[in-house]
Amino acid sequence: MACTNCSTGSKTGGAPQGCQNKGTCGTDSCNKLTVFDWLANMSLPSGQEVFDCVEIRFKNGRKEFYRNTEKLSLLIGDIVATEASPGHDIGIVTLVGELVKVQMKKKGVNHTSAEITKVYRKASQRDIDIWADVQLKEEPMKVRAREIAIQLQLQMKISDIEFQGDGSKATFYYTAEDRVDFRQLIKEYAQTFKTRIEMKQVGFRQEAARLGGIGSCGRELCCSTWLTDFRSVNTSAARYQQLSLNPQKLAGQCGKLKCCLNYELDTYMDALKDFPDFDTKIETERGVAYCQKQDIFKGLMWFAYADNIANWHVIHIDQVKEIIAENKQRKRISSLEDFALEIVAEPKQDFNNAMGQESLTRFDQPKRKNNNNNNKKRRPNKIVKNDPKK
């Protein structure tokens, strides 16, 4: 879903117009981490007041909760001025009503706390103009900030800059492997940019969430669209799912393991409960056989003799358990071939087009061969001599 400014139009020939707001559209329909208010059409019981806290979004999906002490009539998409230190900040209302209480409980925020800052007012046109002007300064400032950090030889990366709504403060988000002494850096920034500087370190996953991008699946990054909690991902998740331990395929744009490795991990763990260990070995009269492969959802295991690794035998896990039970009683089976399953190869299905159109070039005219030129090349030039007899 896109806002009216981002939608396609006849003036651009059907191409997206682009509002150039980079996720800060006033209509709040092309933002990151947008929440659908499914309680919007429901009225409150008589005598119950509207919940006095609202959720407000700032640049790149950063969201905070504020208290509506002035009893303002706020709707989703309204631009408001909020309390900040110092001055005020400008943000967009993303959620109002009882659903805010649910979000605060999910985030572990006490709605009765006195530390919750308040909403000052709805933003005036002057507030919006100042806010738009300082946003235009962020990109060139980020380029210059990175140059200064390189000159000081600091092992850090300035990933993003966010100005406060009134332009009184700029927050520099950076990533670093180790602790960085940026005292001299702040002095250089203050002299160059003539504003108050605040440094805030973020993790590599948080950086990818702020900047956004397209993943290897072809969709937008989960962390920048709906994922808000970053759980730790271990290589054991890839091992349980029998994935190749290739860092180039398992790592996301943040350089860490992909968060989607945890999505199906519980299903695999439940399926592996009935499986024998992968290190299971079977003792037979022909020798010891070791497990080579598992098919978790079909319940199959592949075994091979130690002296013939290339020849694998497929056995169902129920029979594997029976064999293991006999081995524990110091009994050996005759061979794996007695328990091996014959896997019939599935026939390949050749799918045709629904209209029977198999070739895309069926309407193209075949190229005509220029036979005359070829014949001229092949025929040798005959020299006719005068016959004295004629």
UniProtKB/TrEMBL annotation:
A single cellular component GO annotation: cytoplasm
Location of region: Disordered: 352-390
Ranges for domain PSP1 C-terminal: 117-202
Pfam family, one: PSP1
Highest taxon listed in the record's lineage: Bacteria
Composition-biased stretches (Polar residues): 352-362
NCBIfam families per UniProt: RicT_YaaT_fam
Protein name: Cell fate regulator YaaT (PSP1 superfamily)
Organism: Flavobacterium lacus
Organism classification: Bacteria, Pseudomonadati, Bacteroidota, Flavobacteriia, Flavobacteriales
